[in-house]
């Protein structure tokens, strides 16, 4: 077994330092900026993971999340990044992996808002086949100060109790995160994490954006099961019931 797969299976996450070329990063940055600025295009798919706790007239997005961006942007849908990431997902978890959903998570400059510790499975319905991999792709150089990812392996495949931030914000869980590792990356690098791995990122305190494109993969059969149950990752955030 190759080292990437071994690490992914034992730790619940792995870093791939160079998924994309510099040109691919530039192409994706341009598409990303367009999606961020054209708010009307992403109505219903867009929200602030920080929750809407500020007064309406002071409202500014701190952690912009856009679900399923490739549904509204054809250039994204056809981009080579989806094939590259899928090949990795197959290598890590098997040939039956397919794209379940994509999303953008942007931390604008000086918004200094952390994404709280959570497990992705807390957002999902319970499926019989638990294999899943989220590919978190850095479109800027990322480090602690602008919000690179942190990970903490979880031994059992169990979903810890989660709560939501007020105002429809992200899910979070209170857990001892001693020993968590920060994973800085250059733009074009990525990490893969599974649905149970605890993860978090600090706020962006720098002058630049922190743009991430996230692609989630799981077995084709499980995607069909999700869709049958009305789960297509476009809707409101809900806690696992
Ligand atoms: O980008 C972030 O800050 C958090 C990303 C995340 O939670 C995820 O990809 O599952």
Automatic annotation (TrEMBL):
Annotated GO MF terms: 2-oxoglutarate-dependent dioxygenase activity; iron ion binding
The keyword Oxidoreductase appears for this protein: yes
Coiled-coil stretches: none
Matches recorded under Pfam families: PhyH (PF05721)
Record carries keyword Repeat: no
Alphabetized SUPFAM superfamilies for the sequence: Clavaminate synthase-like (SSF51197)
InterPro entries: Phytyl_CoA_dOase-like (IPR008775)
Keyword terms, alphabetized: Dioxygenase, Oxidoreductase
Protein name (Swiss-Prot/TrEMBL): Phytanoyl-CoA dioxygenase family protein
